[in-house]
Amino acid sequence: MAPKLETAFRGHSRPRWLVTGGVIILLFFAYSTFQATSLKHISFRPQFSPSWSFETQRDERNLGLSDSQCDVAFPGLYAELERARDYHALNGGINISQIAIWTDEPGITHAQTRVLLYNGNMHVVGDKRGYARRERVGAALSNLQRAISAIPDARSLPNIEFTIDTLDDPNPRRNERRPGRTVWSWDRHVSDEETWVMPDFGGWSYLGGSIAGGVMGYNSFRDGVEELEADLAAKGRRQGGDAWEAKVEKALWRGTVALGNSDAPRTRQDLVKAAEGKSWSDVQAGNFVKQVEHCRWQYLIHTEGFAWGGRLRYLMNCNSSIIIPWPLHFVAHFYPLLQSEGSEQNFIPVKSDWSDLDQTMEAYLSDADSARAIASRSAALFHDRYLTQAAEACYLRRMIKLYAEVQNFEPKLWKEAELDEGMLARTPRGYDWEYFSYREPCNGPPDPNVNASKVDFEE
Description:
Blueprint: H1 5-11, H2 16-39, H3 56-59, H4 67-73, H5 79-90, E1 112-118, E2 121-128, H6 134-149, E3 160-165, E4 184-185, E5 188-189, E6 196-197, E7 205-206, E8 216-217, H7 218-238, E9 248-255, H8 267-275, E10 281-285, E11 297-301, H9 311-315, E12 321-325, E13 330-331, E14 348-350, H10 357-365, H11 368-386, H12 389-405, E15 414-418, E16 424-428, E17 431-432, H13 433-436, E18 457-458
Helix pairs in contact: 5-12, 6-12
């Protein structure tokens, strides 16, 4: 008689717990495989919604906006970058010889730092001391590093190599100009097509003005502006008005008078003279007002200096009407957004010699609604959007990509170094940014005895 099936099976089986466990393990692996396959199509980064729009309170410090979000939030931000890209494309692109550190200078020494972005990491591969403090490089490169590290994978950015010139006028127009020299800088003269304009160091901090100007960290400055504007709004409401009516009904300017450029050598002296004795004037040499406190005035006057004037980014954060001698001789990264007339006017233009300043002020004082509207448009465009840290991070990443489009060489991280016995070793160029930022001299005023032709290193 044949054995019962269950008896025969039991006679050739493993313990029941082992069979059950095997089935569970197989099911687990099958589920895991399905999940892994599914997760290939899932991004852990929040997905970009077609209906997404930039909201200042939520997004102003979001440094990791996607390219699509950057385009939606800041459609007018990249005009200066596109100008530089197009100029270099028409002139054959950028060769490695064009980014060499500039030496043998006939004028004020240009402190310069050569930078390599490679595989998402930042390296300093050349450095030269000169006029302008190391703190400018520290602030600018810290801002750049923050923009790079904010995206999910910095290695997705192209490898590029460039030189930063820390002097306000990076490519002077006189005997010092070197055709073809290509640098990154805070500004450029309107005739200087070669320079790439990056956000100035004030977007990180302005250490040089922390005592007199009260700027310090850019986030802290913006927080201070918002608190002051809110206090003014509350004061205005108590008086039956608004923040504008709570402000001083005058035009404010403070600064060093003996400062100008080749296009406008006496611009500040001429301003003081034009404003002297006027009822609307709060224009003085020296006697500094902390930068946040500027927002207490209805009208704020901008001036250029040795080159561009770094104060404009701070003035544009206030809900005040900004007076600018127009046109300006130098360009900063956000200047293409300035509108001198029309329905989108966001500042008050006056002649470069200030000859119409009195007439212009009298006109706006008698038409407060127009001045208030200009101030409102300015604050909405610059404070609320284009001068946020989110905007500057978008700008810097776009700068990397557009620069790469016209870069004619492939940057190299490695070099060969000769050892004691004539053997060659492969070693990285320069210093990682994390290390270089702590090397001496980190700060300190310009050295009047600095050798203008001495390069600390360039690899």
